[in-house]
Design brief:
7 strands, globular, alpha/beta, binds adenosine-5'-triphosphate, seven-stranded mixed sheet, Rossmann fold
């Protein structure tokens, strides 16, 4: 089976995320996609986040209607996760590194299962800074959703140095839109065109604080949840 892993802060999950997942599902024939809210996202530690439980609840609501979309507790804080040993504080505060999540998920894989990591281009631009980035590329193929303004050269330049194509080749990529498949030694990247879904969690938090409607960003169950729980005020 082809299995997708879609990590994020999901504070909150919105139509941009769902559009990415649907497009990725069609493109790479994914049988299942795990939506994995991070308890402690390594790259967003300065921003105050909503509690994990709220972010997970919204992911569960947003994915409820789609059989292939699975809300995942793989990056839950220990007390909310499956029984997993110690409640040690320092362990709890550890950021959720994708490589650990990937390895944990793959433990349940059958021999012909294949893992694809879903990600937007803005997040992919920082991929070289990820913990054990080369290993992540070794463990799974990437599905990257383009965002306005990025070229194929930006995708190539974002790779960890050891995986980047030769500079002559990257130069040729400069005028090419990020589309199609990029197959390199050590990295396979499927590029989705711009999804034209301008939703962002930041815009939703701002709209909520300003008392504006959320219907263009999220479906009714998530909008209701935000209202009921008084999030983002
Ligand atoms: P924030 O506005 O708080 O930075 P966000 O809307 O980017 O949040 P995240 O949970 O940080 O949401 O994103 C998870 C993943 O979804 C990232 O890989 C990001 O690039 C991607 N993503 C977010 N919004 C969109 C969108 N509108 N279209 C395509 N991909 C998106």
């Amino acid at each position: 089976m082809n299995i997708g892993l879609f990590g994020g802060t999901f504070d909150p999950i919105h139509r941009g995320h769902l559009a990415l997942a649907r497009e990725a599902q069609g493109r790479c024939k994914l049988h299942r996609i795990y939506f994995v809210p991070a308890n402690i996202p390594p790259h967003k530690q300065r921003q105050p986040l909503s509690p994990f439980l709220h972010r997970f609840a919204m992911v569960a609501l947003a994915t409820a209607q789609d059989k292939a979309f699975v809300p995942s507790l793989l990056e839950a804080p220990e007390e909310n996760g499956p029984i997993r040993g110690s409640q040690n504080k320092s362990h709890q505060d550890k950021p959720n590194y994708t490589i650990d999540t990937v390895r944990q998920l793959k433990q349940s894989f059958k021999s012909n299962d294949k893992l694809f990591l879903l990600i937007g281009m803005d997040a992919f631009a920082d991929i070289a800074k990820w913990h054990e980035a080369e290993e992540v590329f070794r463990e799974c193929e990437f599905i990257v959703a383009n965002r306005p303004g990025y070229s194929l050269a930006d995708v190539a330049n974002a790779l960890p140095e050891s995986l980047r194509p030769r500079p002559e080749l990257t130069k040729l990529f400069q005028k090419q839109a990020a589309n199609g498949d990029l197959v390199l030694k050590g990295a396979t990247i499927h590029l989705l065109g711009d999804l034209r879904q301008p939703a962002s969690a930041t815009a939703i938090r701002q709209a909520t604080a300003a008392g504006k409607p959320l219907s263009r960003f999220v479906d009714a169950p998530v909008a209701e949840y935000i209202k009921k729980m008084g999030l983002y005020k």
